[in-house]
Amino acid sequence: MTNMATLPPSRYFPPAETADEDGMIGAGGELKPEWLLDAYSHGIFPWPVGEFDDPMLWWSLDPRAILEFDSLHVSRRLRQTMQSGRFEVTCDRDFAGVIRGCAKGPGREGGTWISPRMIRAYTKMFELGHAHSVEAWHEGQLAGGIYGVAIAGLFAGESMFTRVRDASKVALVHLVEHLRRRGYRLFDIQQLTPHTERLGAIEIPRSEYLERLAEALSTPVTFGKM
Question: What is the pTM of this model?
């Protein structure tokens, strides 16, 4: 496994290991692509508290939640749903619809953490080819989806939403299978929740995460077409 020392110093942030006990590493900065790419490449991500995104808060959690590609739990009922053809699954067809769908869901402190500023920033990342969405459609309408950031062999899942039962799960299964086929090494989901834990997500120490991140970033894969 690649040693985490192979991660070059960040241009904008202190080392991830210097985050406080809650995982916060700093406040301020800019939500520009160069800042976001630098952050994700060093185990850091932006996460405002509720709707308050100025100054922006940056985090490197310990432990860190990931989803192992071979450990995704797909129930018999979900597999039957996928085989039924109930949903049409696409990639990068409606990034705006997915991120706005995620923003309308419940978030931290009773509000949403996907503020208009965050939407603008990740939409720009999408336009530059750094962010991607997977959509699940039901009867011609967007029923659910997931979006995240892809850098070399890292995919950082940001959020997902559903309007029709199982839609987001179907999108997630398709995404995981796609990433596995493309040769991705690390699927970061940042924080473990009861929902993601039921799907097979686990927590690992930040030190291990950074080692695996270095390995993933040295893996020359691209997201491609689904």
Answer: 0.94
